[in-house]
Design a protein that fits this description.
Layout lengths: L3 H25 L5 H24 L9 E2 L2 E2 H25 L2
Antiparallel strand pairs: 1-2
């Protein structure tokens, strides 16, 4: 940890992602539409990403730093996968609304 500002950002991100994941799981029990399911999966995976970042920053777990060029591949994928699920859900929703 590099300072109290990073810690407060991390705690805020973890708390808000946890609330989002909890409400997404509640929505999951109410709907079975494919579009919403993809969005919900993306939000839950996002919480997993934030939890994993927290564990990594505290030194509880370690990650093998595989890089492609100068980009850390693991961390890039952890950030991209939730967004890909959310985008897929929105695209599915748009397609289902078109007649």
């Amino acid at each position: 940890m590099s300072g109290p500002n990073e810690m407060s950002i991390l705690v805020t991100d973890l708390a808000l992602s946890g609330i989002v994941a909890f409400t997404a799981i509640m929505l999951w029990s109410l709907t079975r539409e494919p579009a919403w399911m993809l969005v919900i999966i993306g939000l839950i995976v996002r919480f997993g990403d934030v939890a994993f970042q927290t564990l990594h920053r505290f030194g509880i777990i370690s990650v093998i730093e595989l890089r492609v060029g100068d980009i850390p591949l693991f961390w890039m994928l952890m950030r991209a996968i939730p967004l890909l699920f959310i985008v897929a859900g929105i695209v599915t929703m748009i397609r289902s609304l078109r007649i």
